Protein 1
Amino acid sequence: MQENTWFDDLLDEIYIQVSRSHAEKLLKESEVKELAARSEAVLDHMVEGVAVTDTKGHVLLHNKSFCRFFPDETRIVGESLGLLAKKAGIDDLIEEVLSGNHPVHTEVTYSGGLSKTWSLLGIRTPGDGAPRSGYGIFLFYDLTEMRRLERVRKDFVANVSHEIRTPLTSISGFAEALMDGAIDDPKTARSFLEIIVNQSHRLNSIVTDLLHLATLESGKASLIMKPVELATQVDRILEAVRSVAKEKNIFLEVEIDPPSLMYETDEGKMNLVLSNLLDNALKYTPAGGTVRISGQLLSGRIEIAVSDSGIGIPKEDLSRIFERFYRVDRARSRELGGTGLGLSIVKHVLELLRGEIRVKSHPGEGSMFIVSLPSK
């Protein structure tokens, strides 16, 4: 009887120890799974692409963002990162990371259809001392948009400097000529003064347009929305340019359907849009041509088109005409007095009004700018 009791006690102790070990194992497995889930969640929500490889460069795991860097690859795990990266011309950098014991951080630019700029950080983790032990950890960051914005900023500063310097040089030069004696000749003095006045007006236009852009881009521009009759609005804008059209012998056409078409907008800001589009149409349409403004309600949106029979825009320039100071023909634009900011203002105003603009144009066949806006 005592022997049985001793044996039962032993079994109970073994059972308790086994149960405890099993519980601890389950707890550790649960902790490992939870940790793995957290790590996976963090990795998959990273903007940067992350890949872990063995020392031969074969991908062991990666996050979702990594797939954006190699979108054409259907299979990544198990593949050689060096071969994947060869298309981008960075396979040598991968090899440098895997063969060394120091981190590699560099910026690479390559053209794979579209030019892209990547920041690459790679490091090999130390192993257990055995040959070829450890892992390669690689982080990819897409700098393409950042570098594009930097170029736009640099171009903008350069263009502003150039555009402002031109009228300032004229004003300064002719003012000095007047001081040096040209003022004593009434005919010459008047001619020089007219140039100074024209150039000061041009300088004022550039500054005014820059202030418009600064206000629109700051996010502080307020909207005063109210019902506007499109035909009346267009008629007021045309009234300001009829003399220019008459002088160039350009025929103005208006077609609003229906004539009483109403829409809700900030009239002042929409006047900027229509005035700039109309001004461009008149500038680039030769004598005897036609400029037409039409408006209609289409699928619940107001669609306004400004078309001309002018010189048109080359296909390669269409994607850039809304950039600040971008000119298809710089010499001709300056001759006609444009600031190079009009279409950029148009784009920003329409973004503020939840509108869109598209362009149809062919060299020698004229251009059509189509504005689409919510009707309410």
Protein 2
Amino acid sequence: MISEASLVDQLKDKDTQSHAFEVLVNTYKVRLYWHIRRIVLNHDDTDDVLQNTFIKVFKNIDGFKGDSKLFSWMYRIATNEALSFLKAKSKKMGITSVELQAQIVDNLRADVYFEGEDIQLKLQKAIAELPDKQKLVFNMKYFEELKYEEISEILDTSVGALKASYHLASKKIEAFLKND
């Protein structure tokens, strides 16, 4: 396994960039796919956003200063790409982002890539009703099992604020599942 620093150096070097990018994609595509999928929920949309994320990473790698981990930087790009995608999609459809989220959750059953049962569908409905920040924090902590410090780096916010967001999200989800 190549170190992150070496990978970044190879990505910035025109001679090794192509191979290094292949290593980068193979290393992170699954984690980024599921991170994006939990935001946009639809498989085809996730593939589009994932591709856009890797394009942005490739085009902007020279601007990566190493202040954070490469992983955190890419997650931040993926998060922003996914949220921008949803914003653009809701605007194109002439509906609010909340209405779009409800529509996407309703369409999950028809998604051949969704293997969830009723309880997972209810959980996705509860998550869809959360504000964006709480949704991101909940998904990263609960599903991806990231540490608060990692989430803090990705979302550029304090650990204390993240803990509060996660707690609020958990309480809202719990209340939704009890009342549903």
Protein 3
Amino acid sequence: MSLVKVESSEGITTITMARAEKRNALTQELCDGLYDAWRAFEAGSDHVAILQADGPAFCVGADLKDPPAAMWKAVPDVSHKLSKPVIAATQGWVIGGGICLVMTCDLMVAADTTKFMYPEAKVGVFGGLMPGIVSRMPHKVAMELLLLGEEIAARRAYDVGFVNKVVPLGEERKEARRMASVIAASAPLVIRTLRDFANQTLPRGPAEIFVPQRYKLEQIATSEDRKEGTAAFREKRPARFKGR
């Protein structure tokens, strides 16, 4: 069974993490599934996406028994540049890398059971993306989350502007869908330009800037063109590049 389910309806792509039995802990397989979903969404004709998760928890972060080598591939707008909005619908625990997933979304609806926590300093791991949280909520609150590793409940996350709406458990997907329907019925060029201009004013953490560039360099380093260029130089002949 796929760890990521993707559905399309009425101009809305719904992306669902489906590893409920492990509380949607992030493995490389799950991260790769999300990466593929973001690429397909951007290339497709839908106007907005919803990111949600099955089970009582949205995402408890990296699976410490099978940690992903490239967790950043799961994160919207980091793994693959998006021109269209994403809405997160959360419930239960949103921990570590789970916060990174929702941090770069444009809107967020949280069930009243949602709790955010970033305990990485307590377990000695750090993936690099999380400091971008400082531009998504007030500095002191962000540092409390980063340095203390204590939970922040949905209502407080709403009070500091990290969440758009808090709703009773079971209503989060319905409300996210309502928001998505409004966007899907709006002028696509205006929506995309508003999002683009707004994102250009948003400060981003060092890893948010560096990781996509590193990925481009890795693509070049492992490309067919690199192999062809090296072979052509060695064989003293013109290279036949294919752009892949």
